[in-house]
Design a protein that fits this description.
Elements lengths: L1 H4 L7 E2 L6 H9 L2 E2 L3 H7 L3 E3 L6 H7 L5 E4 L6 H7 L4 E7 L8 E7 L3 H8 L2 E5 L5 H9 L1 H18 L4 H19 L4 H8 L5 H11 L2 H16 L2
Parallel strand pairs: 1-2, 3-4, 4-5, 6-7
Antiparallel strand pairs: 5-6
């Protein structure tokens, strides 16, 4: 999120628990590392809370007085964060990694000012959801970049094995993925699949192979496994 905001917001402040990551990010992005969460709360218009869920109570005690909080805490309800920071306007946000290039998906629940919503909009596509649907949304949009990256990697590697330069193979698949994503904004996935797979052709042979190997079931299983892990 910080990389996505770099150059688009007036300033960014960073704090950490002693890892040095705040200083690294500040140097990379042109922000400022502060000495404590309390200083962050005094100076920031909005705080992005990105800590381990178990640390919520400890960190919230250092953020008293903050006016607006965006919580990225996984498997932590909006109500729990609001209870920890009763004086703040609190929103729960689940972004995916593409926010770094301002093409992410951000699921949002809770109270956001128009300025905060505009800031999130800089990072990609914002979707309002009830808090109760965050687990399912996370399994679909939060985890999916890793699954899609695995598919891209596998397809590119197979092309390289047949003689394509590995970098060229990756470029071809990445650009194809980007174009297909745009097409899928307009057409149902099944329609795209049928449009590419002419009867008896090479794509149909590939789809048959994916079906034999259980590709669809594997992706469904990945989503279920993610949900089970999130829900303990």
């Amino acid at each position: 999120m910080a990389r996505g905001w770099a150059g688009a917001v007036e300033s960014m402040l960073f704090s950490d628990s002693g890892s040095g990551r705040a200083k690294e990010l500040a140097e990379e992005l042109g922000g400022e590392a502060v000495e404590s969460n309390s200083e962050l709360a005094r100076r920031a218009d909005m705080v992005v809370l990105a800590v381990k869920p178990a640390k919520l109570g400890e960190v919230a005690a250092e953020l008293q007085g903050v006016s607006a909080v965006v919580s990225l805490l996984g498997a932590t309800s909006l109500e729990a964060v609001q209870d920890a920071l009763p004086e703040a306007k609190v929103a729960r946000v689940m972004p995916n990694v593409a926010v770094e290039v301002r093409r992410g998906v951000l699921c949002v629940a809770g109270e956001l000012s128009s300025e905060a919503r505009e800031m999130l909009g800089l990072l990609g596509h914002v979707v309002g959801l009830p808090d109760s649907q965050f687990d399912a949304a996370t399994a679909v949009m939060g985890c999916a970049p890793a699954y899609l990256a695995l598919a891209v990697e596998a397809i590119a590697d197979a092309g390289a094995e047949d003689g394509l330069d590995p970098e060229l193979a990756r470029e071809l698949v990445v650009e194809t993925t980007a174009g297909t994503a745009e097409l899928l904004r307009e057409r149902h996935p099944a329609d795209v699949r049928r449009a590419v797979a002419s009867p008896g052709g090479s794509t149909e042979a590939g789809l048959d192979a994916l079906d034999r190997e259980g590709a669809r079931r594997a992706f469904e299983a990945a989503v279920r496994a993610s949900l089970e892990r999130m829900r303990g």
